[in-house]
Amino acid sequence: MKTEAIDRFWENYINKTKTDNVPTPSIRWYVKRVEEFIKAHPTIQLAQHTVQTVQSYREKLGRNPRLEDWQFKQAVDALKILFVARVRTDWASQFPWHDWIESAAGLEPSHATVARDNHRPVSSNYSAPQSNGGDTVVLSTSDNRLINKVRIAYPQHFNKLITEIRVKNYAIRTEQSYENGVARYVAFHAMNDPAALDGSAVAAFLEYRVIKRQVSSSTQGQALCALVFFYKYVLEKELGDIGHFTHSKKPRRLPVVLSRAEITRLFSGINNHTHRLMANLLYGCGLRLLECARLRIFDIDFSYNHILVRNAKGYKEWVT
After folding, report:
1. What is the DSSP letter of 219?
2. Closest to 60 (Cα-Cα) out of 37, 77, 42, 79
3. Which terminus of the chain has a lower count of CB atoms within 10 Å, N or C?
4. Phi then psi for 132, rounded to 5 degrees?
């Protein structure tokens, strides 16, 4: 009788995974994740589990260095189906399963908080994508095929562009934006060497971006800054007068300023604890988004109620 009940339990669990659109090859792994949880608590029945026992198990999983991000997410999702749909404990439906899954997401190499550490190395004699022990160079995962294609076609230009940007301590966002702008400029002119193009080619590109692509004023201005920097410091020649081109019109809008009551209501609507903490820090301390994302515990001085902002814009440090 007990065996029949167990078989029926797993049959119902598997059916629920199917209704939740879990891929068929993954279902057996969902079952395995639940079995591992049950074996880790041999003296506790499923209906007797509390938030604390599940939280403790989740933290144990998170400390396992052999567990990949996707495996952690899979385990969390398997437990969610177990407790919400099958066991139906009182706390399960209110439990922050989604926050757990989000917390397991790894950062892409191009993420602005770590991009400088993961960016391809800059070498003064870099002339083509080099191999490392037979492996091909892996470009940033967020770069599209067009940008990769241009980067590989003119590695000497992109290598010097990155070098000049970093020597001048420009922000990582600026580096990514300038690479993007130069790559699109070269691609627009049929992959011709930008050293052979002049100011009129820049004007044609900027006008195309506005008329055909309908980019905003700030995007057009960003592209112009990228190309001026590229010609001045990489190609070492002045653009001069690039002539007339259509400018994107910037709409004039009055700023929206929230009252204290509105700010309070806004923060109360942020359910994710991490996001709410970040929002409070941004609002209360005047931090930029990346400065907040890069904060570490030893940057906070509780004795003086100070936060030391390291590696800020322009590699400056300041206290708030």
Report:
1. H
2. 37
3. N
4. -125, 100
pLDDT at 120 over 70: no
pLDDT tens-digit map of 39-74: 999 999 999 999 888 888 888 887 777 777 788 888
Ramachandran angles phi, psi of 286, nearest 5°: 70, 30
Supply the pLDDT for residue 103: 65
Cβ atoms of 162 and 180 closer than 8 Å: no
Q: What gap in Å lies between CA 299 and CA 317, rounded to an integer?
A: 11
For residues 168 and 161, give the distance between their C-alpha atoms in angstroms, rounded to a whole number: 11
Dist. CA 267–CA 180, nearest whole Å: 35
Nearest CA to 157 among 189, 192, 114?
A: 192
Q: Count Cα neighbours of 236 within 13 Å in the Cβ-side half-sphere.
A: 2
CA distance 62 to 270: 24
Q: Coil, strand or helix: which one is 299? A: helix
Ordered structural domains, the chain, with CATH: 2-103 (1.10.150), 115-234 (1.10.150.130), 260-319 (no CATH)
Most confident of 18-32, 118-132, 135-149: 18-32
Output the CA torsion sign for 23, 28, 31, 37.
Answer: negative
Query: What one-character-per-residue DSSP string does 135-199 give?
Result: BPPPPPTTS-HHHHHHHHH-HHHHHHHHHHHHHTT--HHHHHHHHHHHHHHHHHTTT--GGG--H
Instruction: Please answer whether residues 89 and 129 qualify as being in contact, where contact means their C-beta atoms are separated by less than 8 angstroms.
Output: no
High-pLDDT (> 90) share of the chain, % = 31
Give the whole-angstrom CA distance, residue 288 versus residue 301: 19
Q: What is the band of 189 on the pLDDT scale with cuts at 50, 70, 90?
A: very high
On the question of pLDDT at 102 being above 80, the answer is: no
Q: What is the pLDDT of residues 5-15, one digit of tens each?
A: 888 889 999 99
